[in-house]
Amino acid sequence: MEMLNAETGALISAFQLFSLSAFYLSGNMETNASRRESTDRPRYPWKIFWLLLIASMLGVSALLPYLLGLFGKIILARPLPMPLSVLIVVQFMENGLLFAGIISVGFLLARKVGIETPILRRWLYSDQLALPKGAFGGPIVSGVAIGGLIVLAFYTIFFPRIPEWPMALEAMMPIWKRFLACFYGAINEEVVARLFFFSLLLWLLRKIAREKSPQAGVAIFWIANVTVALFFAAGHIPSAKLFMPITPIVLVAIFFMNGAASLLFGYLCWKRGLEAAMLAHFSTDIMLHVVGPMFLRT
Q1: Quick one: how many helices (H) and strands (E) in the chain?
Q2: How many CB atoms lie within 10 A of CB 9?
Q3: What is the structure's pLDDT at 87?
Q4: Which comes out higher in pLDDT, residue 111 or 182?
Q5: CA 252 – CA 275 distance, rounded (Å)
Q6: Calculated CA dihedral for residues 50, 94, 282, 75, nearest 10 degrees
Q7: Is there a contact between 242 and 74 (Cβ–Cβ < 8 Å)?
Q8: Spatial CA neighbour of 88 closest among 55, 127, 60, 129
Q9: What CA–CA distance (Å, rounded) separates 153 from 253?
Q10: Rounded to an integer, what distance in angstroms lies between the CA atom of residue 106 and that of residue 7?
């Protein structure tokens, strides 16, 4: 059931491409920020690592009902190499190993470029680091806002021109399946896109530019953020191909809807930490997958 990894395929290929260079970080190039904070926090945030790994596996589990509801007929129409139940277990184990690697390397990278997890550090390590103002409400409101704009653009611009879009199929799905799927986007996709890939690009660009500051400059941030947004949007193309031909208008819709949201998530991650991106992603997905399809049922 290769659809489990369809939405993050492009980003995961980047993990395989750059993993060797990323492991170089574990013994080199310690930034001024990390040296200053070495006495204030553990050398490696193992508690956060295990929490994110468990959450990622729960995210995969939460996505399964949605995938089977959306792609069930496509899956069953193809010959399977093994019984479906066994295939799900194998995919689950593969995802566990994959996310363990992504999270472990991601934290090595994030600590070098100033990407933080302030809420989790405060909770798990009793860190007295001050949380950003509106640490919870700000990202949630931002996610609802960008999600509402995307839903509006979808129904007014794209859906009349792309009737094959599987929104009607999603609308027929029980709401609990759509709700659970939002956890996958908020946790798993943010771990891949922001914790790993965004941090990796920031690190590479800072190496090229020979930046020494604790956090990336504005130019480097936007280059990395736009690049991640393009990959993030492209990662949704394989699943779209299962339902419709990939025409120019379909590509515009995919890159607009996913790219715009990804730019917001990247900005929040850079300014407020990984948790802010996760909260915004979750509230955006609520608008797209829970609220949005309701308009087709009225």
Answers
A1: 14, 0
A2: 18
A3: 81
A4: 182
A5: 29
A6: -160
A7: yes
A8: 60
A9: 9
A10: 19
Are the C-beta atoms of 57 and 92 separated by less than 8 Å? Answer: yes
Q: pLDDT value at position 184?
A: 97
Residues 205, 210, 213, CA angle at the centre, nearest 5°?
95
Residues in Cβ contact with 193 at an 8 Å cutoff, skipping those fewer than 6 apart: 8, 11, 228, 231, 232, 262, 265
Q: Enter the tokens of residue 36.
A: 């200053």
Q: What is the pLDDT of residues 134-147, one digit of tens each?
A: 899 999 999 999 99
CA atoms within 13 A on the CB side of 243: 18
Q: What is the CA radius of gyration of the chain?
A: 19
Domain boundaries, the chain: 2-296
> Using CB atoms within 10 A of its CB, is residue 58 exposed (0-12), middle (13-18) or buried (19+)?
middle
What is the average pLDDT value for the chain, to the nearest integer? 85
Helices (H), 24-45: 32-37
Place of tokens 């999600």: 147
Give the pLDDT score at 42: 54
Q: What is the pLDDT of residue 110?
A: 94
- Which pLDDT tens digit goes with each residue over 204-248? 999 999 888 777 889 999 999 999 999 999 999 998 998 899 999
Phi, psi for 117 (deg, rounded to 5): -130, 70
d(CA 55, CA 142): 23
pLDDT tens per residue, range 236-290: 999 899 889 999 999 999 999 999 999 999 999 999 999 999 999 999 999 999 9
Residue 68 has pLDDT above 90, yes or no: no
In the chain, the percentage of residues whose pLDDT exceeds 70 is: 85
Closest CA to 119 of 99, 101, 138, 106: 138
